[in-house]
Amino acid sequence: MNIEAQNLDNEAQNLDNEAEQLDSQAEALDQLAAEQEGLYNQCMATCGYDYECGTCQPYLDQANAYRAQAQEKRDQASNDRAQASQNRAQANENRSQANQRTTEGTNLNDQAQAILDNCPEHQS
Asked: At 57, phi and psi to the nearest 5?
């Protein structure tokens, strides 16, 4: 159970690392979205006729797409962190059970030894 607990701890650490990477990717996407929105605002400020302003929409659409991707990455990071937390809780439970079983085994061994020590056949 201790090995299983260590494996869960390792997996939790990997999930935390992945979550950090996802957060970093989300930040980069936010920056790209801000750039696209800036281009949209510049385009809208400089367009002189309504039909020319329609060419600005792709900038805004791209900004929104980047924001949606960033949110997906944040959601996945949140899920990874939740799974990491569950793994750590399970690892702690496994360690607790292993300790309990070790204690029970020691107690049973002590009881067995006491029985042997008090058994007339084994006394000299």
From this structure: -55, -40
Question: What are the distances in angstroms from CA 58 to CA 11, 12, 39?
Answer: 41, 40, 10
Q: What is the pTM of this model?
A: 0.71
Q: Phi first, then psi: what are they for 7, rounded to 5°?
A: -60, -40
Q: Is 77 buried (19+), middle (13-18) or exposed (0-12) by CB count in 10 A?
A: buried
What DSSP line would sit under 84-106, residue for residue? HHHHHHHHHHHHHHHHHHHHHHH
- Residue 55's H or E segment, with its range, is none
Tens digit of pLDDT for each residue in 65-109? Answer: 999 999 999 999 999 999 988 988 888 888 888 888 888 888 888
